Amino acid sequence: MNNYKKLNMEKNIEKNGVGYITGMKAGIVLCPGCHKVLIATEKNGMRIRLCPRCGASIHFRKPDSIGRTWALLITAAILVFPANLLPVMRVYSRNVPDDSTIMEGIIYFFKEGSYGIGIIIFTASILIPFFKITGISLILFSIHFKWKTRLKQKALMFRFIQFVGRWSMLDIFVITLLQAFIDFGILSSIAPAPAAAYFTGVVVVTMFAAITFDPRLMWDEY
Amino acid sequence: MKTTIQTTDISELIVCHDCDLLFKSPCVDVGYALFCPRCGCHLCEPKKNSINRTLALSITALLLYLPASLIPLMTFDTFGFKQSCSVFDAVIHFYDTGYLFVSLMVALTSLFFPLIKLLLIFVISMCLKLRYYPDFLPLFMRWHSFIAEWEMLDVYMIGILVTIIKMYHAVHIQYEYGFFFFTGLLIITFCSSTSMDKNLFWSLIEEKSLA
User: Fold this and answer.
1) How much of chain A, in percent, has pLDDT values that exceed 70?
2) Could you give the ipTM of this predicted complex?
3) In this predicted structure, what is the pLDDT of residue A6?
4) d(CA B83, CA A184)
5) Nearest chain B Cα to A189, which residue?
6) Which residues of chain A does B149 touch, with a Cβ-Cβ cutoff of 8 Å?
7) Which of A50, A102, A176 to mutate to test the interface with B (most CBs of B within 10 A)?
8) Are the C-beta atoms of A173 and A199 separated by less than 8 Å?
9) Cα distance between residue A200 and residue A75, in whole Å
10) Closest A-chain CA to B81
11) Which of B108, B111, B87 is nearest to B178 (CA)?
12) Which residue intervals of chain B bear CATH 1.20.140?
């Protein structure tokens, strides 16, 4: 199954007695746009400001990464409350409106007996946003308090957060499709409710938090 | 202290973009992938016949794009009331409800970004295929890597499936051609982005811009 050759990398890694050699220690920068390896000389700043290959601006670490990520995370943590407490969808049945929150929608699936779908929606709209916010704050705290344990697991967790970020949009897409398809006039129709906007906000803000965070920061001083 | 890394040529070095580990690049053949030895992140994976395959798949996906987004996906039928909708209609219908921000995000992630991403892949691979290297290629490559994250056709597909399962007790669902075009578009888009070898594309662009 696995056709990836296990390479013996030990001979390619240089250890200088203290730890691994990183690009920053060696004065080598990676372009964030095209992943070109560039030499950055001069201790205080960089000789090159823009990547000669793709034109992206070059920094050893993403500028103000921690501050920006904290700001976005706190925004997301505030938005989570209206997103989960306000109704996300309004179902009109014979012109009688009935509001339901995200959690009520999930409970509806479980009552119906569609456990699989209930679990998928629960994972996408409650577990993933919660996991993203707590996961990135855990990594930020571990950078701040210099907890140097389980770095590999934290790196894996961050990659997982980057990967699952988009999947929270699932609930919004379901509402989009439902309100478009269930429009039978007076018989029944579905409309979005305010929490949809807050929830989209949570998704967008946490995705930007994952983009602004620089995972190299947690490996520094290692 | 002079280490071997300081004496080697810079083109032989690799820096991990997730943990900044610096190491000498081994030779990675087609069919193999290189992972960072410290943090385990995926670094590079050369693809077989990358330019031709990417070009062919992006043309296929562009042909599928219009029918997939404009032909109705399904028809919902209850007590003689019929409602059929395409991906595009769903966005317009959402816009009419007054949720500007949400409908904008849905329009971007399910309609505009997939199209822009496919057009960028098409233009880039076409230029490389024709050995024509205009100045906008690096810019297009950077736009592509930004947009790739915000394009959510796969999530939309799961959204369609959840909608079907949610409603199949209540209404009669008839699948239209749009559903099959959309499934095809999703699969081909996925294939075209996996067949794209970014390292190869970048090194080809660089060679020409220096020459």
Assistant:
1) 87
2) 0.88
3) 43
4) 7
5) B83
6) 166, 207, 211
7) A176
8) no
9) 13
10) A184
11) B87
12) 50-210
For tokens 């053949």, the residue is: B29
CATH of the domain spanning B50-210, picked from 1.10.10, 3.40.50, 1.10.4030, 1.20.140: 1.20.140
Beta-sheet strand order (sheet of A89-93): A96-100, A89-93, A188-192
Distance from CA of A26 to the nearest CA of B (A): 8
> Confidence class of residue B2 from pLDDT cuts 50, 70 and 90?
very low
Task: Give contacts of A 14-33 with B, CB under 8 A.
Answer: 14, 16, 20-26, 28-30, 32-33
Asked if B133 contacts B208 with a C-beta cutoff of 8 angstroms, the reply is yes
What six digits make up the tokens of B129?
A: 């295929």
Domain edges within chain A: 1-60, 65-219
Identity of residue B38: R
Strand pairing of A96-100 and A89-93?
antiparallel
- A-chain CB neighbours of B27 within 8 Å are none
Q: Which residue has the tokens 């995972």?
A: A215
Write out residues 106-165 of A within 8 Å (CB-CB) of B. Answer: 109, 112, 114, 117, 120-121, 151-152, 155-156, 158-159
Indicate yes or no: CB of A197 within 8 angstroms of CB of B89: no
The residue type found at A31 is: C
Residue of chain A minimizing CA distance to B101:
A197
Find chain A residues with C-beta within 8 A of B94's C-beta: 176, 179-180, 192
Q: Which two tokens mark A17?
A: 């007695």
- Domain at A65-219: CATH code: 1.20.140
Chain B residues within 8 A of A5 when measuring between CB atoms: 32
Give the pair of three-digit tokens for residue A107.
Answer: 């409970």
On the question of pLDDT at A5 being above 50, the answer is: no
* A106-155 pLDDT tens trace: 898 888 888 888 898 899 889 999 999 999 999 999 888 888 788 888 88
- Say if the Cβ atoms of A4 and B102 lie within 8 Å: no
Q: In this predicted model, what pLDDT tens digit does every residue of B27-64 receive, in sequence order?
A: 888 888 888 888 888 888 888 889 999 999 999 999 99
Query: SS3 helix, strand, coil % of chain B, rounded to 5?
Result: 60, 10, 25
